[in-house]
Amino acid sequence: MHGPDPLNPHPMAAFPQVGFLRPLVKNPRIVVGDYTYYDDPDGPEHFESRCVLYHFPFIGDRLVIGRYCALARGVKFIMNGANHALGGFSTYPFGIFGGGWERAQLGGSDLQTRGDTVLGHDVWIGYDALVLPGVNIGHGAIVAARAVVTRDVAPYAVVGGNPAQVIKRRFDDATVARLLAIAWWNWPPEKVTRHLEAITGGEIAALERAADAG
What we know:
Elements: E1 18-20, E2 30-32, E3 37-39, H1 47-51, E4 52-53, E5 63-65, E6 70-71, E7 76-78, E8 117-119, E9 124-125, E10 130-131, E11 136-137, E12 142-143, E13 148-149, E14 157-160, E15 165-169, H2 173-182, H3 189-194, H4 196-200, H5 204-213
Parallel strand pairs: 2-5, 3-6, 4-7, 5-8, 6-9, 7-10, 8-11, 9-12, 10-13, 12-14
Antiparallel strand pairs: 1-3, 14-15
Helix pairs in contact: 2-5
């Protein structure tokens, strides 16, 4: 055996609250890697509607989540559709309501999008954390429960608070560079299975040997 089926939406039969997101998400603008899961007693199948907010198709932004990510209950991704124009005296979106207010959209707008929201691989996001539009969270990062992430997070950083600040780095810079070079999350499942002890252990040299071993 080489791990669970990444296309099984409920890989833990006794715990249906845990679901692999790739087979559950239907929106083509939400891209989720293999083995990334969402844990919610109300059902992981509600991730798209409850956790990805203001994701309007006319905006065109994407939520991209890597492989082997762990998302706790109540995680929220605020997408670019939540932004309001700031160039005028009012931020109220008159134009979307019609009834003669459509002309408020004429003449251009300073409404700016911040691009795609991207989570790297092996990212852990805690309970009720909030991620704002256009944020890039690096590989191996940890976001604490109820953190509000307003800016990019470096690989293997631990962030928390509102706005989220770096609490610590999980490893020193040299080790982070070696981990990023190894990129075990890109290995085929068979290789991940063979070298689980090295991946979950804390010895970088052992992981490098596993990478070379094939």
